Amino acid sequence: FKAFFIQDADFGGTNFKNSVSFMETCFGSQVLFRMSSFEMEVYFEDTIFSQKVDFMDAKFKGTVTFIKAKFKGCAWFGLNSFESKISFEEVSFELGANFRGTTFSQNANFREAKFEQQQANFYEVTFNQEVYFGQAVFANGANFIGANFVEGANFDEAKFEQEQANFYGATFNKQVDFGLVVFTNGLSFDNAKFNNILILNGINEGKESKNNNKYDKFIFDLKNAQVERIDYTDAYIPKAKNRETFQVLKNVAIKQNDQIKALDFYVEEMKQYKKELKEDKKAKCIDRFILCFFEKVSYFGTNPLIAIIWILLTNVLFLSVLFLMIDNFEWSRIGSY
Question: What pLDDT score was predicted for residue 330?
Answer without folding.
Answer: 58
